Fold this sequence. Notes:
The termini are far apart. This protein has one domain (33-155): Protein of unknown function DUF192 (Jelly Rolls, Sandwich), CATH 2.60.120.1140. It has 3 helices and 9 strands, in the order αββαββββββαβ. The chain is globular. It is an alpha+beta fold.
Amino acid sequence: MMRHTALIAWLILGIASPALPAPPGDPAGHRSGLATVSTPGGVTLYCEIADTPASRSIGLMHRTRMAPDRGMLFLFPEPGRWTFWMKNTKMPLDILWLDGNGTIVHRADRVPVCERTDNLCPRYRPATAATQVLELRAGQAEALNLDTGARLTISMPKQSRSR
């Protein structure tokens, strides 16, 4: 019960929480409902999935913190030069655009919070088409050596669409 309460609080309020143990009977180590992203250096990240127009639109808006082992994975129905901005996002982020194989095709580091009240926040867009975008806490891409060309291994939870 405590594990579920902490996860719900984190999802709703964006509260950073310590890493949760894998659910019982989950040999792959997935956290319920979260994608598992493995880096070339062997670090595992647990990411919320934004795979609908509504969830992609909201993203990480209004959150103020995120644990270092967490992120948000945006899934798109086809390759594109998907544009992101930081309106209503309350923490700086690293934004990684990935191709269909999980290879990083573009990286924007330490993208700052936009405090404008109009719709004139800067936009961030890759030069290369991507099918997935990974948002991490600012500085995590550099700390984990996630450079353009690095390939991430992404495992989706059973109840989500496969990539």
